[in-house]
Amino acid sequence: MPIFLLFVGCPTFNTIYLDTKIKHEVIEKYLFFEYEEEVNFISTIGGREVKDNIHRCLKTIFTNDAATKCSWLGQRGNFRVCDLASITTLKDVIQSTYTITQKQFEVICSEWFRLAKLRIKPTQNQAFQL
Fold first, then answer.
1. Which domain of life does the protein's organism represent (predicted)?
2. Which domains does the chain have, with CATH numbers?
């Protein structure tokens, strides 16, 4: 099944079709753009607290469908996201804004990817009711 990464709100981002077997180096090649531009975009997303800010940023970067095919470390055949440049940039922005350790950042992000299937179920149920 294909993965779609949807970058919302920034004209330099595009919807990119990814095959689940593509190595992250190839994906990084397609997702590359100016670091400062990405930092400015991520900085404008905001949130009430660190966890909310990270969740809002991840929701902006990844669709729920894409998140179901990803995991922090790439276990169980999922796509590994901890090494993506976008995640590194997100970590840099969050750590410059909040007092948060790398471990706390990893736990919040990995939990968000782990719970992606639960976020899809309510939207699927709504589609069946229509």
1. Eukaryota
2. 3-129 (1.10.10)
